Amino acid sequence: MADLPRLKPDPIPAIHPVPEFAVSGPRAAVYERTKKGLGVPWMGVVAMAFAHYPQFYGTLWSAMEPITGTKSFEQACRSLRDVAEREAEALEPAPLVSRLSTQGYGGQEIEDIRACNEVFASGNMPYVLMASLARYLLEGNAWLGDGDLDRITAPRPNFSKPPLMEAHHASDDLAVLYDDLRAALGLPFVNTDYRAFARWPSYFTVAWNDLKPRLSQPEYATGLERVHHAAVDLATSLPNATGITPDALRDAATSDASFEEVLSVVRLFQWLLPGLAVNVAFLRHQLQI
Prior knowledge:
Blueprint lengths: L24 H14 L6 H6 L3 H11 L6 H20 L6 H7 L3 H32 L33 H14 L6 H6 L3 H11 L6 H20 L8 H9 L4 H28 L3
């Protein structure tokens, strides 16, 4: 097992995500390659925050790109999702389908929420692996994975990017909910996943009110530790196709900013993403019949 303890940076560093609409040229090309390689319809906040450091992100993505779309990478994503799903189910989410139906939600609306959840339940896994590899290398650890590079041949799911309820779209009630999310999760921003679920504010309010009390339970913290360690083990077992070294990634980082700044941002996302994975799985289990 790779030795990488779960660590929340203190203080929380400022992040500067570079949104998709603001990039052009080589950086836009890297964004498109990222989405294609990971099989996702959106640039996660983690990738956009890393891309604020272009040499660092370009070096990291160049090392990851050859392994995306391989059987090894897809299996690592499936295995990591299985761990997150088990930990979420153990928290015993309250079933919400009948309650939503009573509120007036039709069957298609509930299916739409499930489909939105699937985008993130599936798509978050490669981002967790990315953040884990980035931190592992920046902290001076050699990536020694030697799995195979056989490509998958089956078509991948064709997800569409869900519409997002940005902070400037929010009603007063939703703004209060976003404040509550940030405070409860200990973060200065609202992740893409939650902004997508807030497309249905009455649903998301009920779902969040069921999830929030779990965040302080010991079982929740233990579950996140399990997801964290699974992510590190799975990420570092992947084949290092380009032979990237810790020094190469650290040199790229220091060409963009101080090493401490880049490492702190990487640690932030590597800390928070296991929780996001479990939370999305929890919300998915709420919608099971």
